[in-house]
Each structure stands twice: as structure tokens, then as C-alpha cells.
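Aim 2, interim progress. The first record below pairs a target sequence with its C-alpha cells.
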Amino acid sequence: MILSFFGDAIVAVLLVVTISYAVMLNQRLNVLRGDRAKLEALVAGLTVAAQRAEGGIAGLREASEDSGRRLEKQIEEGRKLRDDLHYMLERGAQIADRLEGTIRARRDEVRAEPADRKREPKLETPPRAATPEAEAARPFAPSRAERELLRAVAGR
């Protein structure tokens, strides 16, 4: 009898330990179930954020392609302008060289004249009497130097 009483007491103690362990395990499972709901909400939030990020990336890609096209167009326009300026500079240098050659030739002509036969200044014929309307229509008359410069540039 004593032996069965001790056996029953040991089984009772083990049952109490098992029940207390089951209660503790049940509490932990409840916490885990509550965390599962929070985890699902977190996953849903991450999904929404990922979709927004994908949309933002697509928008950035379109904007960068548009900027690239506009930049390419501006670069092409810049190249055309560079070529035009290069051409103008070459033409300007050629005109300046011709003008310099003409001036140099005229100076040499003046120096080559004998000292006693200095060139007499040409007397320009007085302009015809212009009507006031014609004078008003012509804002200015080019000077002799301007006319010579224009002739030199024209290559005469």
C-alpha cells in the first residue's frame, strides 16, 4: 500500500509539472500567434513599399531616358554651332589675311613712289545736291577709309 501511495504521489507530482509546463507552453504559443499577425502586417507593408519602389524606379528610368535624349539633342546642336563657328573663323582669318596683304601692298606702293612725286590727294567730286528726303533716307555716308576697307574686303 505504501508503495502504491508513493507511486501515486510521484505520478501526481509529474502531472502537476506537466500541467504547469503545458500552461507555460500555451502562453508562449499565444504570444507567437499575436506576433504572427504583426508579422503578416509587416509583410503586407513591405509588399506595398516594394511596389512603390518599382513604380519609382520605372519613373526614374523614363526621366533619365528623356534627359538623355534632350542632352543628346543639345550636344548635337552644340556640335553644329561649333562647326559653324569654325567655318566662320576660317573665313574671317582668310579675309583678314587678304586685307592685311592689301594694306601691305598699298603701303609698299606709297613707299616706292619717289619723294618728289608724292601722291597728290585726290579731290573728290562734291556730291550732287541731294534732296532733304534723300538725305533723311540715307543715315550716313561712308568715309573714304570705310570705302577702301570695303573694296579691300571685296578683293578689288
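The second target in this work package is listed in the same format:
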Amino acid sequence: MPKAYISALSGGLGNQMFQYAVGRSLSLRHGVPLLLDTRMVEQDALRAYALSGFRIQADIAAPSQLPPKLGRIGRRLRWLPRWMTRRAYVFEKGFAFDRSMLAIRPPAHLSGNWQSEKYFANSSDVIRSDFELAQPLTPERQAVADAIAGINAVSVHVRRGDYLSNPVANAYHGTCEPAWYALAKQKIEQTVRNPSYVVFSDDPDWARANLHEFVSAKFVAPLQDGSDEQDLHLMARCRHHIIANSSFSWWGAWLNPRADKVVIAPAQWFRAATHDTSDLIPSGWQRL
């Protein structure tokens, strides 16, 4: 295993961005390269490697650079060589921020979600630069960006998709309902003058039919071209944000560099209270 950090990628675009960000921050702190382990997403029928649309500073690890996968039993075996033990493998202990991670020295293979800004707060400018788009916006998206530029835009993200259609995902995540969005709109209008709402959703027909408080909003339907990172950047072009319980819209709000942005996030991120989400939402955002 090379003297580097290797971030194991899993899940969708937002999850992979968190996994990249923690590895990139550690690589900067300790002056070693970052490699990406894409084995899990390559074997996932519903997911794929999703970071190629950004200007990231990491290579995909070659098979010869990757340690073998360890199952639960393998993690406990003490007769394994040093490079195969827990000193090389770093597994996320829980959902809350783990400060001890910042002291992990290379080589290390990182496996987890790492969903907290605290893992990369000291490298935020670099992370934002790495997540710049590698290609210009498509013409359709550029038209939306031009429209956003001329208004006091508030992005509203409505995540449905597998959160609704997949019973396991629904039981785990749940969805933000119309009543919550109505309250979030009220919250925005307490501090934002003349807001114009831009609704991003993987189910725009449902959003139009059910978000009655947003009848005058601009609705943006996703394009089926595999360039989700461009939709993320359209969110980031907005001045303020109402995000769903989704790492996708979390990043849409976080990539907005404005210091005066207002971000409204769900207080309940998961349907089942199985995780400590106290470190998930940056301190400047509001939970509702």
C-alpha cells in the first residue's frame, strides 16, 4: 500500500464528495497523494463513479495499490501483516464528527461517509476549487444560470426518487413533506428580501402539484445526461437555500461561497433517529 490516503467511494454524488473531501483534506495536511478506491461503486448496479465532472486532485487507485477488502472477521484478525491491520484500514466509528481522524497518518484506507464539514473545514477553499466544473455548463443549464443571476434566488431541493420508491431507503431516510417546505419558506422570508424560488427536484411533476406555496417558482427538471454535478452548481449559483435531507443539496448549499447566505435544513435528517447528526449541518445554517 503506497504512502497515501485512499478514500473508498460509495453511494451517489453527494456521498462521494464527502469521501473525497475528507481524504483530500488529510492529504493536504500530511503532504501525500490522495487515491480513490472505486471498487464499491463499480460493483453497484444503481451507482457509478461520479466525480469525473469536477477538477479534483486525485487519481483512481490501481488494483496493485489497493489492499484487499476485509470483512468483519478479517478486521479482527491480529495475525495479519501490519499493512492489512486496522492501522492501515480506517473505518468510520459513527455518524458524528470524530476528531481523532485528523491525526490519522498515512498510509491509510478510509471507509465511511464522513458527513461533516469539520473534517475539511481547514481546507474549504481548496475543496471548493477542486469541485469546480471540469466542463462549461450545457446550453440548457447556462440558460437557467443566466436567469438565476438576475434574481435574489433561493434554491429549493425536493428529493424523492429512491427515497420514495425504495422501501428500505424510505424507512431509513424519509422525505421532507409539503408542510415542511411551507415552514421553510416562511423562515426564509423573515430575513431575505424579495426572494425568488428555484425548485430543483428529481420529481418535478410531484413538486409542482404539491408545493402549493411555490406556485410562482421556477421549476428545474434534471437532465438525463449523467451530469448531475452541473445541476449541483446551478443550486450553488443561488443566493440562499432550502435543502432536503440529501447530501446532494447539502453540497449545493455548501458550494455557495457567500458569507451572507441563508440555508434552511431539516432538523430531522433521517426518519429513524439512529444517527447523531449534530455535526452534519454547519453552524451558520438553520435547522427547522
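The first strand starts at residue 5 and ends at 8. This observation will shape the mutagenesis plan for the next reporting period.
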